[in-house]
Write the structure tokens for this entry.
Amino acid sequence: MCSVIGLYNVPEAAKYAYFGLFSLQHRGQEAAGIASSDKERIHITKGRGLVTQVFDEAKLSKLVGSSAVGHTRYSTAGEDSVLDAQPIFARYDLGQIAVVHNGNLTNAKEVRKRLIKEGAIFQTFMDTENLIHLIARSQKEHLYDRIIEALGQIEGAYSLIILSRKKMFAVRDPHGFRPLSLGRLGDGWVVASETCAFDLIGAEFVRDIKPGEMVVFDESSELKSIQIFEPTPHKCIFEYIYFARPDSNIFGKSVYELRKAMGRELAKEYPVEADMVVPVPDSGVAAAIGYAKESGIPFELGIIRNHYVGRTFIEPTQAIRDLKVKMKLNPIKNVIKGKRLVVIDDSIVRGTTSKKIVNILKEFGAKEVHMRISAPPTTGPCYYGVDTPTKEELISSRYSVEEIREYIGADTLAYLSIDGLLRSVGNDLSYCMACFDGNYPVPLKS
Ligand code: AMP
């Protein structure tokens, strides 16, 4: 996962991008960057780490101009090096360009091989760099046409913002896998992965960029919109389950409300007699509220999360790993002692977190732990921009629910069904659920 933000015709655009990236930090903590344009030149700063680690006042003050693009990175393609931080910047025959991308290109290897054979020299390991090469090599006269020609050669998931010295372009792939919203800020425009960024910078939500649409921002104050590809929507349902912030509206719906709806459906499908509903913070909170409301079982914060645990640099031996979960999540002993708990989380990936949580809760005196997951079992990896491990590492691809229950040590375990998930999102069938049902709308090409 990653996040993107773009501002056009906004004085001190880079400062707004910087604040916007704070709101989008949850979508990627490995690297951050901003490129701005003063119409003559593109200026760029990027680096490894959190937004606070990459930028300071001096660096920000050099990013002058009234347009800017920003990015936070969670590596799904490429390597975790500073070279792979975004924006990607290039000089080419039409001038200068900076690109930010959320998604994953499924034919990246194929295109990269072809480009290298034709003489291209790659600077990064990122799939996004393909796009820059394709734009630079196009023989079309205008950037606008070059972008369209380049996009015709790439497949997969992309919510992209492209900055040139005088213009900005925002595009979503025809499936619309990743979100991208458009907002108004004063006389200017803002585009961002999630609407929570608009709230922070005082922008007003206008609409989503549509699947297959490109919006062009230029010096005429009118927006230009072109539907470059026929839309075939497969919006990522996992955005609702885990990724997006609950205070965002994604794909036209409130993430918080949908998470609560998932909790309600889960309570209908898998009720249990218990004394309290306890979320795994923060990912399980909204669904736990829904579960508690539907079941009538009281909601309690039985586990507290420490928000200040970053990465630890100690060898990850098993003992240290155990310590890490305890550093991050700690039960409130007197709340859970002797109680029958329904514990809600949004997903089980490898099973590590659930196993540790059940273990700590039992160690602290919980009488029963009934684990409820507000999504179906994750059985397949994502090729469209979510960092999931290989199929073999996904516990649900290899083991039955009963085997997983035994492994994590819960008294009972149940997952929301695919039908239950669909009910929660209003039976809208335009979502990609490949990680749950194995129906991949775009094949991964090697
Ligand atoms: P695991 O311990 O491997 O089973 O991971 C489960 C935990 O990771 C849950 O608490 C989820 O909220 C969280 N999670 C689910 N998907 C992802 C993801 N793609 N990246 C990071 N965390 C995730």
The pocket of adenosine monophosphate is lined by residues 242, 280, 283, 345-354, 386-388 (CB under 6 Å). The two ends are 21 Å apart (CA to CA). The first helix runs from residue 13 to 23. The chain is about 30% helix and 25% strand.
